[in-house]
Amino acid sequence: xxxxxxxxxxxxxxxxxxxxxxxxxxxxxxxxxxxxxxxxxxxxxxxxxxxxxxxxxxxxxxxxxxxxxxxxxxxxxxxxxxxxxxxxxxxxxxxxxxxxxxxxxxxxxxxxxxxxxxxxxxxxxxxxxxxxxxxxxxxxxxxxxxxxxxxxxxxxxxxxxxxxxxxxxxxxxxxxxxxxxxxxxxxxxxxxxxxxxxxxxxxxxxxxxxxxxxxxxxxxxxxxxxxxxxxxxxxxxxxxxxxxxxxxxxxxxxxxxxxxxxxxxxxxxxxxxxxxxxxxxxxxxxxxxxxxxxxxxxxxxxxxxxxxxxxxxxxxxxxxxxxxxxxxxxxxxxxxxxxxxxxxxxxxxxxxxxxxxxxxxxxxxxxxxxxxxxxxxxxxxxxxxxxxxxxxxxxxxxxxxxxxxxxxxxxxxxxxxxxxxxxxxxxxxxxxxxxxxxx
Length: 439
Fold this sequence. Notes:
By secondary structure, the chain is of the alpha/beta class. Helix 4 runs parallel beside helix 6.
């Protein structure tokens, strides 16, 4: 009787074990852990083994297919790889709070049954020791000017002892390194690469993947903006659209028109972005494959410009109207303050300022808003009032094509300084385009 009960119990245990094993295997066959954000174009996991990983001892080998890599490419990839592996801290204990942005992946979500997430380490598990980075284009130097033209595709193949990251450009290699960092898991005893082999092929669906940050209405210090860029890198976003000035403040340091910064910023000189700060921020973004595209709204939303003596006469004198419609909230009301595009000095002043802006920001694009001029504002300016009598709307392009059929203020400025811009609907315009093609 006892033996019969024992055999029955053993049979039942075996059946339960088999069903449990089947459930674990089923979990492996559909597992997406560790997950990658954003989801790659294709990802295949072999579920054959899990490798140990000592982040600070991984050897990184960089080469280019078309010859010797440009020195700037080798330098930035070595720097990024070192930063990625070096940021991992194997002193973190399961269940403890992770330092802010130091380790991106938390400890095991379910520490009681890690098999539900990945294959456990075996006594003979191998150590991941080498990462080979292969860049196809060797002549693409690291530059903020050419960053928008860089391909971002990559392929990542990970085996137990080594991995290969292949990309068309150095930017694609940065995206692949970010993906690799998301595949590294802290198990409680150390770092591992689970569910190997892994093969990934990826490229972005959209060329422009950005975040708009408005520091004109709410000042962010440079360190805060760097954290935004760092977080963008984790998500493989690639454009920081920096709305740096507006009616409320002008925190950009202009050396050509210092009075704008002094009187247009919230608190001079503390809440101001110096040109040196901006250049360092652009370099910070470049090392993460992120463009910094500035926005300088004009001719509307330019009240802060008018607090300077250089632009005082170029801004429509409509403060009575602003006060009457503010409702006690001046921040919104002053958006109606605009440039007087009929003033003879406006074009030259804008051209001078934008030339300086584009010397600081090397990206080939700048957003100028092309904000409309308000009809009521036109009444406050004699030149705009006369213009209003012959045109139904007061958008900048309509004002500037009246009479002598001049090109628009913005387009003429861009033609002189040799750059491009995109307008309110992000329409890309060749620098030779005249405004008549838009109307």
